[in-house]
Write a structure and sequence with these properties.
single chain, 224 residues, alpha/beta, Rossmann fold, seven-stranded parallel sheet, 5 helices, 16% strand, Short-chain dehydrogenase, NAD(P)-bd_dom_sf, oxidoreductase, oxidoreductase activity, SDR_fam
Length: 224
């Protein structure tokens, strides 16, 4: 039986690139997104759910548990970006970003990590951002959520290392996905989704006795 990876926000961009890379390496991929149209491919197990809600997280967890297969890798990639400043961003922005970018990862991890601990095997990836370590003027609640996600990654690392479960935070800079649609900036100013996917695979591929705790990836010409 193929090893199993769960990728949230996996229908496009970084999530899709990670799912593609792991499937190419012999994994089956449970790919969750609000819309999973176009994901009916060999090795893909698509699940439609809105992970900004507990009901959506439970929908995904129920599907995973119904397979009765161990999860080898969890990639908490679901996220949303809304620009603005704390002082004037729209009411509800904080709650929306925290529920999507942080709470989804918290509840999904809690729902899967027990089996990893019991098996003393598993790797959890948190898709953070350079916004996890750098405050941007127009970042507002997005920066807050990504700082929180990195903090969660570090807490999990300390809690799970004695159980042989690995935790890696990925901190990519500007990546050429749909979030940048319509930009006038040249392609070379961005990371490519495959850059992040290749880095994730490389971190997973280390021996059992080694872990990459944090991966910081920026465009060669620096942040945008």
């Amino acid at each position: 039986m193929n090893p199993l990876i769960v990728v949230t926000g996996g229908s496009k961009g970084i999530g899709r690139a990670i799912a593609n890379r792991f499937v190419a390496e012999g994994f089956d991929a449970i790919v969750c997104a609000r819309s999973v149209a176009g994901l009916e491919e060999p090795g893909f197990l698509p699940v439609a759910a809105d992970l900004s809600t507990r009901d959506g997280v439970n929908t995904l967890l129920n599907y995973i548990h119904s397979l009765n297969r161990p999860v080898d890798v969890l990639v908490n990639n679901t996220g949303v970006f809304l620009p603005g400043q704390i002082q004037d961003e729209a009411e509800g922005t904080f709650e929306q970003l925290m529920s999507t970018n942080v709470a989804s990862a918290y509840h999904l991890t809690r729902g899967l990590v027990g089996d990893m601990v019991a098996r003393r095997r598993g790797h959890i990836f948190m898709m953070c951002s350079t916004a996890s370590i750098t405050a941007y003027t127009n970042g507002g609640s997005y920066c807050i959520s990504k700082f929180a996600l990195l903090g969660m990654s570090r807490v999990l690392r300390e809690e799970l290392k004695i159980h042989d479960v690995k935790v890696t935070a990925i901190l990519p800079g500007a990546t050429l996905t749909d979030s940048w649609a319509g930009t006038d900036l040249p392609e070379e100013r961005f990371l490519k989704p495959n850059d992040v996917a290749d880095s994730t695979w490389a971190a997973y591929s280390l021996s059992k006795s080694a872990v990459i705790e944090e991966v910081l990836i920026r465009p060669q010409l620096g942040d945008i």
